[in-house]
Hints:
The protein has helices spanning 10-21, 29-38, 52-65, 75-82, 95-109, and strands at 25-27, 43-47, 69-72, 89-92. The protein has 110 residues and is α+β, with helices and mostly antiparallel strands.
Amino acid sequence: MAATPPPAPEALxxxxxxxxxxxxxxxxxxxxxxxxxQGKCQVVIVAADASRRARQxxxxxxxxxxxxxxxxxxxxxxxxxxxxPPVMVVGVRDRSLAAGIIAVATRETD
Length: 110
């Protein structure tokens, strides 16, 4: 089976944007860490170029808590889509939205 180029993350970005606009997801390392600690985070989206510090603060606790982690586009693209400066991490607290994000991310990496 021939390898196909990775698809544009448009669907993933669309779901993340929808979640942020609806208050079901929030960008930022600190809020995502808090949601992970409180058991409110359903999935963590980490920018492909996230800093080592951001990864240490979010990814390790999320793994320990069993929260799925999705690698998103680079921080500049993620931030631009959300109308913000570069965004390294987005936490999602809604189960249905998280399931959709995981499904899209899985489909994009197949």
